Amino acid sequence: MGLYKQWCDATKEEDKRKRYWTYVEKDGGRDEIRDDLAETMRSLCHGRWA
To answer: Could you tell me which of 17, 23, 26, 27 has the fewest CB atoms within 10 Å of its CB?
Structure first.
């Protein structure tokens, strides 16, 4: 979840029994997480197909 906090702004709303979570990309958010995302994907792929 750490990547999402750097990458996006989150809004959480409740309406009776339903919960709505909305994520909107921050300006520059993609550049902020690019290196971490690449490392996360490498570790996931390596663990799965190793």
So the answer is: 17
* Per-residue pLDDT tens over the stretch 3-45: 788 889 999 999 999 999 999 999 998 888 888 877 777 776 7
Both tokens of 15, joined, read 């309406």
Amino acid (one-letter) located at 49? W
Coil, strand or helix at 27: coil
Strands (E) in 1-50, as ranges, are 8-15, 18-25
Task: Decide: 26 and 10 in contact? Cβ < 8 Å.
Answer: no
Measured CA to CA, the distance from residue 15 to residue 42 in angstroms comes to 38
Dihedral sign from CA coordinates of 8, 27, 35, 47? positive
